Amino acid sequence: MAHPTPPKTIHPLDLADIDDLLSDEEKAIRDTVRRVCAEHVDPHIGEWFEKGELPVARELARTLGEVGLLGMHLEGYGCAGMSAVDYGLACLELEASDSGIRSLVSVQGSLAMFAIWRWGSEEHKQEWLPRMAAGEAIGCFGLTEPDHGSDPGSMRTRARRDGDDWILEGRKMWITNGSIADVAVVWAQTDDEEGGRGIRGFVVPTDTPGFSAPQIHHKASLRASVTSELVLDGVRLPADAVFPEVRGLKGPLSCLNEARYGILWGAMGAARSAFSAALTYSKEREQFGEPIARFQLTQSKLAHMSVELTLGTMLALHLGRRKDAVGLRPEQVSIGKLNNVDKAIEICRTARTILGANGISHEFPIMRHANNLESVLTYEGTPEMHTLMIGNALTGIPAYR
Q: Which parts of the sequence belong to the Acyl-CoA dehydrogenase/oxidase C-terminal domain (predicted)?
């Protein structure tokens, strides 16, 4: 039986030719995001990171909305209705520029918009989703609290009835987009005589009296991202501000799984950027009269980085295809998030060693990606929690309880 001869072209950033598994449409979406990032993000991201600001967040959101990236995997209400693989490829390209930019898109689309799209009333959807998809309104997602991260069921934020209204009291912490948001999805404990006790979600316009979102400064990671505290001081909302059906952790955890899926793709973007910088540098930097790419130990580092980048990208693509075909179980998302972020950090650290002291300079993207990934490692579920979620799936024993 005759076998086809594989093409001889070598793509150093895609040695396994994963691109051949993508459709022309998927490649076109990927290329569009890469082009937008090259024009609007890459020339400025080093300066934004160094200054610890994202001064064009609103303008950037509108630009991303114009090309259909905000809530791109949702159907209707002005959303593009693209596939999970399309969304994953977009996240990879966004995070190849910077984790903070992918976080802006991820929080907007997979947390705030998805929560409203999946759990909101028709009025919520009509009011917010078209504007959010266009980047004309920005959303944030209030779940994590100062004292409760991995254990959201113990949150202290409360929503109590006052006549037909709800009154929200509490604080949320480490909230991406918080200070620039027009709407916040806030999760709170309730004790409603009609609906019973439990966690419920609320759609909170950020101009509501009693709501404030002081920005968090002095970060060493995700510096080109708006991160805030949410303060809810007697925030009065009408009865229809609450998500009508969902109760308990099912609501927020469903949103987190959407965001985690984007992260497992995005981490490979940061890894690719660091690997690419190291590969280029190794062929240009000379020591002992030779480019350092000539040395066996350097080639060993490059080979191992290439293998891990390939495996992580293949895992992301597999999970994306499965999500489009039949959906993903939480532990499958945990496999991707746990593996890919860990391997991306490893790639960044190895890439830094190839550049030596130059690896810590903002002239190169490696240390910026490495710092960002330290946040990505623990948000949307710490590695410990994802490990135990996988362990629970394997043994049937929930060790985290």
A: 247-394
